[in-house]
Design goal:
The protein contains ten helices and ten strands. α1 crosses α2. The longest helix has 17 residues.
Length: 298
């Protein structure tokens, strides 16, 4: 495909983003084609491939001004394109990955929801929050954004580590008729339905050679959320180049216990959903200027 054909295709794509003027569509098309031809997200490399007059410095400045534009937001530009792309995606289950990563290392985090696609994490929506752990309200608010991007009848499995394992999150996910596989802290309590004894999840007899699966339990003494299935296994990780180790991982899920459960869950613990895209997001001056979002509501 020639650059002119690519430019025409990108104009058609951005034509689906409502509310953009002809000039804004032209600017987005120019930058996107330059990025595709450059095969890079570095402004200096993209600038060399821009289909416009001017010296290299002025082209880089043009890109910086574009990234600072108020209309260049995920709701206005990015998510309409994602919705269009997802309309042609066919899979029995869609796996939505939740993750959080530090944006600048000192003050802000990126909370992100991504779609697992061929061992990659495609961003669906994100929030920039104050540095530190995210709350259940922030996480639910993010999933509420994602909900409008997914077909209503599509089977969805939501994955997250222990930061996303609250009962509030479980209830929200199930209210959307989705499933979940969410990590849990070792001190969380569970009990078999009808049993009177609450047990810590790290009391499960899991070993490096044998995983443990416990169906139909009540989850946490405070919430008594039911039904939940719990499983635990040892996962190898590389602590240093010469000392591989194993650590126990605990998960609560709404999916039935089956031999395929860990394979389905591997979409989360087999990839880093957030860090693959944080470098791109951090490179835009627009995102650096975003104010932290604290306890946003649905």
């Amino acid at each position: 495909m020639s650059s002119l054909q690519l430019e025409d295709s990108m104009k058609t794509v951005f034509g689906h983003a409502k509310g953009l003027t002809a000039a804004q569509t032209e600017n987005l098309t120019c930058a996107s084609v330059g990025m595709l031809l450059a095969g890079s997200v570095q402004l200096t490399k993209i600038a060399r491939w821009l289909h416009r007059e001017g010296q290299q410095d002025s082209r880089v400045q043009y890109l910086r001004r574009l990234l600072d534009s108020d209309y260049l937001t995920q709701e206005q530009v990015y998510q309409p394109l994602v919705r269009q792309a997802l309309s042609g995606y066919r899979a029995t289950e869609w796996h939505v990955l939740l993750d959080r990563s530090t944006l600048d290392g000192t003050t802000r985090d990126v909370l992100m929801a991504s779609l697992h696609f061929r061992r990659r994490a495609i961003p669906l929506a994100w929030q920039v929050n104050a540095l530190g752990g995210s709350s259940a309200r922030q996480q639910i608010s993010l999933l509420a954004q994602v909900r409008h991007l997914l077909p209503a009848e599509q089977a969805v499995v939501v994955h997250g580590d222990s930061e996303f394992g609250s009962v509030e999150m479980m209830r929200f996910v199930r209210a959307q008729h989705w499933q979940f596989i969410l990590g849990q802290a070792a001190h969380k309590l569970y009990r078999r339905f009808g049993d009177k004894v609450w047990r810590r999840v790290d009391s499960l007899p899991v070993t490096p050679r044998h995983a443990v699966y416990v169906p139909d339990v009540e989850w946490t003494q405070d919430a008594c959320y039911y039904p939940v299935n719990v499983f635990a296994f040892y996962r190898p990780y590389q602590n240093s180049p010469r000392s591989p180790r194993h650590e126990a991982r605990y998960y609560a899920t709404s999916l039935p216990i089956a031999h395929t459960l860990r394979r389905r869950g591997r979409r989360r613990w087999g990839s880093n959903a957030c860090s693959e895209t944080v470098s791109l997001l951090a490179g835009t001056s627009r995102l650096r200027r975003c104010k932290p979002i604290i306890d946003t509501t649905v």
